[in-house]
């Protein structure tokens, strides 16, 4: 059994934040916060796998009362270096089962995090847990990548997803189990003869959009909208990610 505490440890927590760059850049974070603020419509929100507060902190700054659930001790400790419990209360536990309260207007899971649940049963349970937190008519929002199995050559067990100076991402894929392990290689600044790199591995269970929709229906949600990104560009057959908005049925 994989120990998520060992994956999301102190090293991961301390290197997670990249202020102003990557997923912390204004161009990425701004549209996400704007969309979530609109969907919350002034009501309280709960973030599953809140992490170090990348989204929760700026969302709370818009006036939305934000709570969270987080499994990792290290990620939660990093969050607490930024904001205290009074501002953003967090329940420590598994996002598929931990309970942070009821009557939320919005629950959300960003940056592929539902894939950290490594079985279909756990992912189904996560939808049920979201429904348990929401008021009737509330929204559950998931940001997730689209599996790129078309890029996997026959007979090959992995793909290079990113290759740029100082960083390479290689995904090893098991199509039978819908498992994917990301290998993040980060290299020190180029020095003649240097060979050292740091590797961070994270396991995932990838989910097709149609499978995600069925999980939602089992928990009493209906798909309200699906975008290719937080800027609400149209989702197409060529999209590599999606933001899916599910509405909890009333009654």
Automatic annotation (TrEMBL):
GO BP, one example? methylation
- Every copy of the Methyltransferase domain together lies at 46-138
A Gene Ontology molecular function term for this protein is: methyltransferase activity
Identify the keywords attached in UniProt to this record, alphabetized. Methyltransferase, Transferase
Superkingdom field: Bacteria
Q: Does the keyword GTP-binding apply?
A: no
The protein's name in its UniProt record: Class I SAM-dependent methyltransferase
InterPro entries, alphabetically? Methyltransf_25, SAM-dependent_MTases_sf
Say which species the protein is native to. Answer: Humibacter ginsenosidimutans
């Amino acid at each position: 059994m994989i120990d998520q505490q060992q994956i999301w440890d102190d090293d991961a927590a301390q290197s997670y934040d990249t202020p102003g760059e990557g997923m912390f850049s204004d161009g990425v974070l701004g549209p996400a916060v704007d969309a979530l603020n609109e969907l919350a419509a002034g009501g309280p929100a709960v973030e599953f796998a809140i992490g170090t507060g990348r989204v929760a902190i700026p969302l709370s700054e818009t006036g939305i009362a934000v709570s969270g659930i987080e499994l990792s001790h290290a990620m939660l400790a990093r969050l607490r270096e930024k904001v205290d419990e009074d501002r953003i209360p967090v329940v420590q536990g598994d996002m598929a089962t931990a309970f942070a309260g009821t009557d939320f207007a919005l629950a959300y899971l960003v940056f592929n995090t539902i894939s950290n649940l490594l079985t279909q049963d756990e992912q189904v349970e996560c939808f049920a847990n979201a429904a348990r937190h929401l008021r009737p008519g509330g929204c559950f929002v998931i940001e997730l990548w689209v599996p790129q199995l078309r890029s996997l050559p026959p007979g090959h067990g992995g793909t290079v997803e990113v290759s740029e100076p100082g960083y390479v991402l290689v995904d090893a894929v098991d199509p039978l189990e819908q498992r994917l392990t990301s290998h993040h290689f980060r290299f020190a600044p180029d020095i003649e003869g240097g060979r050292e790199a740091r590797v961070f591995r994270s396991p995932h269970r990838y989910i097709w959009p149609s499978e995600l929709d069925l999980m939602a229906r089992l928990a009493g949600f209906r798909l309200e909208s699906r975008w290719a990104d937080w800027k609400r560009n149209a989702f197409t057959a060529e999209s590599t990610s999606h933001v899916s908005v599910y509405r909890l049925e009333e009654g």
